[in-house]
Amino acid sequence: MSRVHEDSMNIVAMIEARMTSSRLPGKILRPILGRSTLELLIERLSRSKYIDTIVVATTVNITDDVVEELTKKLGVGCYRGSEEDVLDRVLKAARAYAADVIVEITGDCPLIDPAVIDQLIEIYLGGQYDYVSNTLRQTYPNGLDTQVFSRKTLEEVVNLTQDPVDHEHVSLYIYEHPDRFTLFNLDSNLPEKYWGLRLTVDTIEDFEVISSIYEELYPENPSFSLGDVIGLIKRRPELMEINRDIRQKQVR
Length: 252
Known about the structure:
seven-stranded mixed β-sheet; 9 strands; 15% strand; globular
């Protein structure tokens, strides 16, 4: 990772990940080309120009011992906290790693694009917004989801709400209160037909899609981009038929 921002802010990528996913348990350690989806996600995050530290925020459950073991092997940070109160887990992880800026990622996004992440971080560093993301308006495929905000903002949130839904979804309170926080959404330049693509891993069908994309693109270019993925889908549109009928779970 190369640090290009000149100030002293510590920018931490926070990956929320656990083994007990409801629809596809153990998905973060499912292998693609001999490596787990979580390891591939971490590799992509490591290409960011701005991220200083990568931390996996997992749970205290014994089932997540393997997650901590993987982070040690990969040399990235790990924090273990509440399974249900993800807000508390992420905030305590941010404190433990002295994060000034949090880049929130979920463990089901092994196709995350570091170039998109860096765009979002650059906008945040411009200083005009409390919260910058590409999720307020869906113009990126599912699986590119990135949210950027400060630890200070999260400290504020934890004192403002005890709603269990707010505590399960870390940044929900922030973007549901534009009266209190200034928000920015980054739109993609993709044609609308690509906005709803499922490039996330939540079901076995999703995993099949992600595996196919990696098997096609990674051997020749490990740092392939979202543009490369879209190019592959144009050549092989049948890939997106595999998980076309899967519906994203709603927050509320």
